């Protein structure tokens, strides 16, 4: 039997997982001599590269001595936490990274809790020790405390600690050592992570934990083989979550090595491979021996907590910038998304309307962003949390929120969050004049909070949150404080009118931008909506003006990207998303309609 170790790399967002995997690939000599590779090589899709975050978990394999180490890099953002949970079932040990300054963050808690509950063996990596503000001793203590709080077993609590500057390829077991490289990480993996259980001689059992799609071979299930052998061409039975058994055949078997995937003929217990040939394959399905089919425990797929409505764009500018604009096209696209993205759900919601649910705003924006790049044009409504009934009680999702703010601003932020039904749990000084405040807050209270928070803290505050649980509904929370500046006209915005409007609030548009009646062009500095004319040119007059008024000084417009705009809008507003623009509008475009509706 092959010597294998299976590990996942888990952590809070940005603590350096993908960078560490770069180092593991590099220092194991997995790359060929002339193989080109970029920084954070595993973040392979466009959005991941642009945003510098991991969206999908991905696996790779390296050789170290005579071992094969399968590594799964996971996303750290809370919206993708469900995926981490599934990945954890596929591995025997984990590298838990934690930033040497930031320490334990909401998603650190989330992933550590899941990992401990599944009985995995942790190796703690204190990363970014090169930072000036690094405080590795404090962070090690925080990890010990966290493990203890979360009922780690003695064996888990006795975790090895590695200190690393992953970006510089440095790792060591002792802070006092000079230099150091990733040898100690490889050795610790070999020594601490249990070898896979199961036997190649048992009837085959493999479980699918991620789906992929390829135009040539169709749906692909990335799977961990727990028992037996799988060969290309094998007949198998596919055990579904509902107990159904479907006959299938392995048309292709794909192995991983570094950044490459290659066709292989055979794989055996303990390994992680991609399997093609089963059109109905889903996450959690077991690929079984056809004679002796025994399904593995189905996998828990996290429920969505947030929902929005995608709709056919019906603004006056509809159809001018997009390629795919019809309800049919949008429906097909959403349906195809759902075949590989198990964490999201979709259902039709009336003529030209589609309800899309997921784990958070980022997950929804990533889908919308991909669609607009593919040429789609559509509307999106304000995100709503999913309310559900548990034992007869109306419940809503709650989040664990951690904010780091300059000390003098703590009070302001606490007051704001109070109005959003947050409950403060702790407050600690963080050194360098910052304090860390932890809250529990209904997810509803967080919608639209980020923009406010960044303004309140002049961009210095940092906030992080992750899903806690469903709890009884907490009543109404404060929403947006300011009204909208709404265009009364259709045409192109004029510098002169924007100049005159800018003391009414913050503008979202610049001269020459297209506007229409009912489009929102800025945020009013008061709480009510205000209708304005942004296309008025300067009136001709006989009075000679001095040269000075030619130099109109415009404040740069606020950049309302998809995420910011989605957080900003209210129930009676919509986003209009096209490949070229993100516009904000009132659902009802004319003032008369809005007046009628408000009666
Ligand atoms: N100073 C310092 N920065 C690092 C180190 N390792 C990673 N970084 C930086 O931290 C940032 C995040 O690194 P990533 O590897 O993308 O982090 P990640 O954990 O994979 O992030 P997500 O996948 O989005 O959760 C990047 O800008 C890295 O260059 C380190 O050892 N020291
Ligand atoms: Mg990453």
Structural commentary:
With 599 residues, the chain is α+β, with helices and mostly antiparallel strands. The protein has 15 helices and 35 strands. The strands form 6 sheets. Strands 18, 19, 20, 21, 22, 28, 30, 32, 33, 34 and 35 form an 11-stranded mixed sheet that branches. Strands 12-11-17-8-9-16-13-14 form an 8-stranded antiparallel sheet, covered by helices on one side. Helix 4 links the parallel strand 4 and strand 5. Helix 3 runs parallel beside helix 4 and helix 9 crosses helix 14 (562-568). The protein is globular and about 85 Å long. The mean pLDDT is 92. The chain binds guanosine-5'-triphosphate and magnesium ion. Residues 11, 13-19, 40, 52-54, 75-77, 127-128, 130-131, 165-167 line the site of guanosine-5'-triphosphate (GTP). Guanosine-5'-triphosphate is lined by residues 11, 13-19, 40, 52-54, 75-77, 127-128, 130-131, 165-167.
**Which ligands, by name, code or SMILES, are bound?**
guanosine-5'-triphosphate, magnesium ion
What is the general shape? Answer: globular
Low-confidence segments: none
Mean pLDDT: 92
How much helicity do the residues have? Answer: 10-25%
> How many strands, which pairing sense, and closed or not: the largest β-sheet?
11 strands, mixed
- Count every beta strand, where a strand is a DSSP E run of 2 or more residues: 35
